[in-house]
Structure formats: structure tokens, C-alpha cells
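Q&A log
Question type: sequence-to-structure
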Amino acid sequence: MELFKSLRTSYGKRMLLRENEPARNKHGSNYHSAKRIAFLYLDSDEEFFKNIKKYATYLKNSFGVKSVHMMGYVDRQEKYAPIWQQHVLESDFFTRDDLNWYLKPIKRVQNFINEEFDILIDFSDGDNLPLNFVLKESKALMKVGQKGATAERYCDFIIDMGNSTGIAKYVEQLNSYLSNPLIK
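Response status: OK
Response body:
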């Protein structure tokens, strides 16, 4: 079973590199000028989910962002999806059931991918294959990710976390750079 999973992942990584990134309008932005922001994340636990949801509310209240859409990947079958994951306005998720043989999402993500968000922020560690497919194919105007991650090559703005880890430090770095009104 482990060999089969390793084979799928290896093939998926090659397919990710082989596929062309779609044409998109690249445009730098910050929280003051952005109207639509999106988050990509790997569902790890309810605490993490609550933290990014709280951050979405913060962006709306502090910067007047009109919408913050969250797209999560739940690494299990849909019938075992956690209770806090729901298909509601501005929050969606996909599961293993939505992936093809080489771990590319083929269901539930198409609208998210085609949306031209002003900023797309990758809250995963950048090394999750299904999320990397979504990040690469997204038509977001500006993509933000972490330095040193596999997904770094698909991002327009990269944050160096150094030896720091965790969502609190990442949010601190995001705020430091993207809340500056002079950067557009």
C-alpha cells in the first residue's frame, strides 16, 4: 500500500511540473487595495481552522476586504471529514475523493481556480501535492507563499520564515509586508 501511494505521489509531482501554468494577469497588491483574498490551507485541526477564520475576519474588519474565500484540503475521505469543515459561503474544502489517480484535484476546485482573487495566500507548508496543483492553476493576480517550499516556484511574493514556524509567526510576517499602504 505504501509503495502504491509513493508511486502516485511521484507521478503526481512529475505531472505538476509538466503542466503549464495558465495565463493570468499578475498584479501586486496589499491589504489596503485588495477586495478579494483567498486562503489555501491543509486541514490539520480545528484550532488551525479557527485561527485562519479569525484572520479572515480581521482582514475584513481592519482593511475593508470585501471577501476572504478559504479553500482547504482534508486528507481523508469525505465521509470522515471533520465537523468544522462545511461547504458554506466563502469557505469550502475538498477531500481525497475529489482527487484523480495522481492526486490532482478534479472536483470542487474549478470555480476557486478560475476566480481572479487579488491575493491568494498559501497557509499550507507548501509541500502538499493537491494544494500545489490548485496554487499553480489559480488565476489569482498575486500568489503568496513561503520560501523553501515546493510551491515557492508558483508564488509571486515569497515570505522567508527563517527558522520560525507556526501560523502566528506567518500571520505576523504577512501583516508586516502586506499591510504596508506604501507597497502596491
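Response note: The mean pLDDT is 90.
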